[in-house]
Amino acid sequence: MKRSTTSLLGHALLGLLQQKSRSGYDLRKIFAETAMGNYSSSPGAIYPALQRLEFDQLIRGKVEETRGMRRRRLYGITDTGVAELKMWLAKPIQPTDVQRGAGELMLRFSFMEDALGVSACIYFLSNFGAALEPYVAELEAYLTAQADTMPLSGRLALENGIRGYRSMHDWTKYALGVYRQLQANSKTHTAGTRKGGPQ
Amino acid sequence: MKRSTTSLLGHALLGLLQQKSRSGYDLRKIFAETAMGNYSSSPGAIYPALQRLEFDQLIRGKVEETRGMRRRRLYGITDTGVAELKMWLAKPIQPTDVQRGAGELMLRFSFMEDALGVSACIYFLSNFGAALEPYVAELEAYLTAQADTMPLSGRLALENGIRGYRSMHDWTKYALGVYRQLQANSKTHTAGTRKGGPQ
DNA sequence: GTTGGCATGTAATTGGTTACATGATTGG
DNA sequence: CCAATCATGTAACCAATTACATGCCAAC
Q: Can you give the pTM of this predicted structure?
């Protein structure tokens, strides 16, 4: 057993463990109860994934004894794990990433600020927007070209896709604005306004 | 080998084969080149899936000889296949369907008109909208409750999700309008305007 | 003292990814 | 004839789903 690659779920776990140490159960609850509902959450997925990450030395588990609690294994990220996470986060955006629904890109973005900082987020967002534009254009071209050969429900489904990607594109602009303002603020008053900003 | 369940890819193939008979290569091209890019398209996925469908008698393949073309196996859907497809399309919408990103729901909708007719589409769209509303509300509640405990990029990612679902909700209303109008038209002039409608 | 939720795991099966292999046919 | 593309497949590997199993601790 040599192991080397890390799956999408593995990276999601890495990202969460970089925020703070957690147990497998904590992680399952996050996937089950929070807005990250689009990931597995079943024990048969989480625990093996954690074992793989630990085998690869990306995380390390310690049985959290004492404290009157049930025995639970707390996982923390290692330096190697942080490095792997950063590499994953910093990967350039490929066209296929956006074709496949952009779910992985959004996951990466949600961990990005803590791991890579604000300027990396800005860079990512502008690349993301630039990747969305031609893709939306392509979908629209396909729609106008093929509209009369496809069934109405197929056409409407495609229109939904276009709307979704356009909304995502709008969002990149909005998020860029938020980050640019945050960057400007941190330059004017040298230290203040971490977390929250104006209103 | 008994087989009985059909995967998502299998249902996508069934839906496409219900429109018309196609070869494995045709199907691969559709996944690779059209807006259905969020499905596999690799030969290692398509051909085994077709074999499973044929084993289950949901489709039937015939080598299309003659015609000066290379040998290719044309698959057509069977009556059993149509029945399975209709069952899948008619399944009630579960909350998990929308949490998981609604991709499967949109796939079902895109095949729905041909297989189940306009009134089924209307029924589906109104249920879809009804399922989206509380989910959007839940996400928004989570955002306002947790906004200050999450990193900014996480918060923004969540906002993107909310925007996406809201756009989908708007779309269900738009699509409902299109179908209602189509239904009204087909009642006034008893026969006309199949495929295309006004304009 | 037993029910129910916390917490961790494993085994069987299945399906997808990647990569490779092969042949036929058309176009230059 | 050679390259590209059409067209179909297979094999190794891996990860996720489902379902099951277990054991602790708290509360009633």
A: 0.90
